[in-house]
Design brief:
With 311 residues, the chain is α+β, with helices and mostly antiparallel strands. The protein has helices spanning 6-21, 39-44, 48-58, 143-159, 167-182, 200-207, 213-226, 234-254, 259-275, 284-294, 299-308; strands at 26-33, 72-84, 90-103, 110-125. It folds into 2 domains: 24-208, no CATH class; 212-311, no CATH class. The protein has a 4-stranded mixed β-sheet with strand order 1-2-3-4. Helix 9 runs parallel beside helix 11. It is globular, with a radius of gyration of 22 Å.
Amino acid sequence: MIKFTRQFLLLIILLSNAALLKAQELKCKVETDLVRLPSEARARLKFFPATVESYMNNYRWTTEAFTEEDRIECTMQFIFTSADLSKTPAIYTAQVFVGSTRPVYNSLQRTSVLRILDQSLEFKFDERQGVLQHNDLVFESLTSFLSYYAYMILGYDFDTFTKYGGTPYFEQALRIVRLAQNASGFSSGWSEGEGSGANRAVYIDELLDPRYEKVREAYFNYHFNGIDLIFNDEQKSLGVIKECCETLAEIDKRYPGGQVIRRVFDAKYLELARLLKSIKSELKPSVYQVLLEVDPTHRQTYDQILNSNSN
């Protein structure tokens, strides 16, 4: 029989405590909108948010050392559109909003990093299953979707701190896409030739495409050399942000219709509109024109801010 000495037990306690110091990477809040579903489906999905939160928050997605303060704050909102309860497990369709933020250096503010509405999720879910199992080597309609966005959240966050720092996580997302494309069933959103091209496959291919490297470089500069330094040297920081927008406009001219640039402005348009308030009056027209050129979708927001500061 093994004799456990006091020193051995102390070592076990210390190792256990050290493991606890390494927090998981994500701090994800999950919400559901069930108004379109029948009452039985709503009842079955009662614990769905907690189940998804457990999957996102309790798995170790990287080998990096995260503290509790380092965890990436993110949200997922499932807007359910249909439920087929005749199947076992039941099959659901939903639109899913995914968003993440990170702190702005030397301030109490946060900046939006990723905002995306995924409009074509179809998956099976058995409320009796309990804990969702993670496996990056096998495609599964719900967990593969969740893993894909976990890696996308990580990739974007790492890209804001280190140039191309998110590449390993984007590559993991790409592997999930390839698994999905080789699987049978639940292909909605995973196929490159699907619909208008606004899907997970095209999105991740663009992020890893050398043609869009400058987009990721600009996103890094926007955060690390721009927004993070805004409380140290506001005008210099705003100059960096203006240059980043100009870079994105140039790339958009060269390769029009890409998802990657659209996603940047989906995440940043409100922040950019607020920053217009701080830009020197003589620079506002040129910044405004760049924003309209590359991001006409959010023109109304830019107009409101610019007009409110015209006097």
